[in-house]
Amino acid sequence: MDSNTLLFFILSLAAGAGLGAAVYYSLSKRNTPSGNTQAEATVLVERIEKVFKVVMAEGYFTEIYNYQHDKSIWNLINDKKKALIIAKAKVLVGYDFGKMRFHVSGSNRKIVIDYFPEPEVLSMDTDYKFYDIEQGWLNRFHSDDYTSILNEAKQTMNEKALQSDLPRIATNQVQLMMFQLAASMNWKVDLQLPESNRKDLAEYTSYRPTDAEIDSLNPRRD
User: Fold this and answer.
1) Are residues 161 and 92 located together in one domain of the fold?
2) Quick count: other Cβ atoms within 10 Å of Cβ 105?
């Protein structure tokens, strides 16, 4: 291959590479969404704690929350805002064993429970959707309104969970687990609870029929 042919070959490669780069740049620019989107996230770990919490029951709840707020302007105009919120939640109920007090009688191979905590909501995963949002000219929704509505809906979910059979299921589950685990190691569990503690736990040791009730969907007015 003479020098002229080699030079032509190199120039052809360079031209082809340049054309390919131009085509790629044009296509990538065409497929790139217009605008300049920037996102930045900062995660801060405040503290880490050791816990001994055991989930014994989980339940799924749906709440229909009808919100309405009326605002009177000079007693002449009634300006209102309202929204329909459907909230769904997965609630985990169990025990925080860090709150339990006990001592061990090694000679009798016995674990004596001096205080047994009540079941509690350990976590709640929630999902909210807003429907039929209406607002007036002056009485409008703000970020604080949404925060307040969601907090109240979550509090209602928490109360409903504790009023359901979840705490009773959790209590029966944890006692079954403790007695079976102790028996498998030839130990015994002795509940020597104070009278007040025994009374608090008495309502969680037996089941009651779960009645399905439909709450009224009348608007809640502030």
Assistant:
1) yes
2) 12
